[in-house]
Amino acid sequence: KAFGFHIDSMSMMGLALIIGILVDDSIVVLENITRHRAMGKDSHAAAIDGRTEIGGAAIAITMVDVVVFLPIAFLPGIVGAYLKEYAAVVVIATLFSLLVSFTLTPMLAAFWSVKKVEKEPPRWLAALDTRRAHLSVFVAAVVLFAAGAILRATILNVFGVFALALLLLNLFVHRYNTVLDLYRTRLLPAALRHGRFVAFVCAVLLINALALVGSGANAIPIDGVILVGTLSAYGFAAFLRRRGHLHPWLRGFSTLGSHRATAVATLIIPPVLALAMTALGGINFDFVPAEQTGHIRMTLAYTPGTPIAVTAKGVDAIERAIMKL
User: Model pTM?
Assistant: First the structure.
C-alpha cells in the first residue's frame, strides 16, 4: 500500500520467485543451530552461537540478491514501469527473510525445535518410507490428474503436482544419506582426481551456451575446433611421454589423455554438444519479440435475398483461407 502496488501478476511473480530465498536464510540458520546443539550446548546457547557464527554469511547472501534486483526497480521507460513492482517485492521480501532469520528463527529454535534432542528420527517420518506410502501418494496424484482432466478443474491438477512433489521430496529425504555417501566417497574424489576433465567439461558447456546466441549451428565449427585441439593436445602429450626425460614444466602436460575413460569422454562430449545445440536452435536478443502486423479488407457481395446461412458459410470459408496464410 505504501508503494502503491497491487496484488497482480508482477507482484505474485516476485513472490513466487522469492519463496526459495525466503526460507534459505532460516534453513542455514537452523542447520547451524542444530549442529551446535549436537555439540552438547543447551538450546539457548546453541541458538545464539549458531546464529552469530553465520551472521556475516547470511547478510552477504541477502545483499547479493538485493544488489541484483534493486537496480531493476529504477529502470526507466516502459520496461521500468513493468518491472518496478516485481523488483521491489523481491528486495523487500528478501530483507524481511533476513530479519526473520535473525530474530524469529533462533527464538523458535531455542524454545521449540532443538529444545529436545532426539536420538532417532520420529516414527511418522519412518512410516513414510514404505512402499504402501509411496504407492498411496502416487495413486492419489494420478487420481487428481485424471479428475482434473475429466472435470476440467485446474485446481485438481495443481494438487496432483503437489502430491508428486511430496513423493519426490519424501524419496529424497529418506535417501539423502545414501546420496551424500555416494557423493563423498566416489563422485567428489573422482572429480578431484580428474580436475582437468571437470574444468574441460565446464568450459565446453559455457562455450556451447554462448554459441546458442544467434544460431545453434554456430556450435558445429566451435566444437570442431575444440575436438581438433583436444586430439592435438593428446597427440603431443603422447609424444612427450615417449621421450622419457622431460622438463619439469612439461611433465604435467604429458599426462593429458593418460586416463582412458576421461580421454574418451573429452572426445565424445564436443560432437554430442554440437548436435544438441544445433537441435535447440538459436536464442534471440529481443526483449520484446518482433511482430508483423497487417490488415486485410475484403467485400463479399451476394445477390439480394441470399439466406444468412449462405453468407455466413462464405465468410467462414474466407476466414479459414486467410488464417492459413
Answer: 0.63
Sign of CA dihedral 114, 118, 122, 125: positive
Residue 232 has which C-alpha cell? 592435438
The rounded distance, in Å, linking the Cα atoms of 302 and 311 is 7
Dihedral (Cα; 198, 201, 205, 206), 10-degree rounding: 50
Task: Flag whether pLDDT at 247 surpasses 80.
Answer: no
Strand, coil or helix: what is 160?
Answer: helix
- The radius of gyration of the chain's CA atoms, rounded to the nearest angstrom, is 30
The cell for 42 is: 543447551
Residue 159 CA: distances (Å) to CA of 96, 202, 282: 29, 38, 36
Residue 305, beta-bridge partner list: none
Looking at residue 283, the DSSP 8-state letter turns out to be B
Rounded to a whole number of angstroms, the distance between the first and last alpha carbons of the chain is 48
| pLDDT tens-digit readout, 60-105 | 988 998 999 999 888 888 878 888 888 888 898 899 989 999 999 9
